[in-house]
Amino acid sequence: MSNALFDLSSRVAIVTGSSRGLGQYMARALAIAGADLVLTSRDRTRLLPFETEIKALGRRAVSLELDVRQRESIDKMTAAAEAVFGHVDILVNNAGSNVRKPALEVTWEDWNLVLDTNLRGSFFVSQAVARGMIARRYGRIINIGSVTSVAGYAGLAAYGASRGGIRQLTMSLADDWGQYGVTVNCLAPGWFQTEQNKVLYENTEWVEYLCDRIPLKRTGQPRDLDGAVVFLAAESSRYVTGQTLLVDGGISTGATRALPGAGRASGKPSAEPR
Asked: InterPro entries, alphabetically (predicted)?
């Protein structure tokens, strides 16, 4: 199989929320595959060390301020990215937030924070960037979902609603923009340790419980998303759109033992940090 199917040379990718964690890993994978990068964060200064790292790989990179909850910020970032590189080929909608609370304790403000960031933000960033993609009749939009796009978890009402919405939004935009050569897909990670949830992984009993429910018997590791994000960004996925690709170790299969004691992991599972 030709490496050209996964070669991102001459492509320009925006990765929102790329100052740390999942967004930074995916941005790095795209750069290794050849893409130049637009890195974004609400605090631009937090991006500068990573920008230096990307440039050391021989790629061009620029760090831009972006608050996905503010329309003016989205428009300013998009204009700046196109001014620097002339075009944008790939968008990874990664910027996100979460509030973990029992449903009865979720406030109006909690709900708005999560939905405005994860769902509304992804839509309006996509809209702004897609205008240029449609004019050039080429684009790859990758919305970041979650296993909560397809499964419900107590304590994640707002987050699950936002990620379920991302899955539906992906299908709608794929239908809207496919005629212009723009594909839109959802990359949905399972349980990965990030800055947002690292306190959970300090509870070894909970980690063992979680890993026991994952067919591969471990949580996600940093490089587990590399192949998926490059695939969705490259020529390899040219006939794939409107889809949700779960990278979750299989937990979305249901992960409930049908036989008592069956399928238990041997030894003590480990939670690898992202």
From this structure: KR_dom (IPR057326), NAD(P)-bd_dom_sf (IPR036291), SDR_fam (IPR002347)
* pLDDT tens column, 64-76: 999 999 999 999 9
Q: Which CATH superfamily is domain 3-196+222-249 in?
A: NAD(P)-binding Rossmann-like Domain (3.40.50.720)
Evaluate if residue 259 carries a pLDDT over 90.
no
Q: Which residues are catalytic?
A: 159
| Phi, psi at 245, each rounded to 5° | -100, 110
Tell me the torsion sign for CA atoms 29, 34, 35, 41: positive
What is the DSSP secondary-structure string of 24-63? HHHHHHHHHTT-EEEEEESSGGGGHHHHHHHHHTT--EEE
Q: Rounded distance, CA 101 to CA 242, Å? A: 31
Strands 90-93 and 139-144: parallel
Residue-wise pLDDT for 71-124, tens only, equals 999 999 999 999 999 999 999 999 999 999 999 999 999 999 999 999 999 999
Q: How far is CA 122 from CA 90, 135, 151, in A?
A: 14, 20, 20
Amino acid in the structure at residue 68: V
Sequence ranges of the domains in the chain: 3-196+222-249
**108: CB partners within 8 A, 6+ apart:** none
Pick from 5, 32, 4: which is nearest to 239 by CA?
Answer: 5
pLDDT digits (tens, 9 = 90+) for 176-200: 999 999 999 999 999 998 877 788 8
CA distance 148 to 145: 8
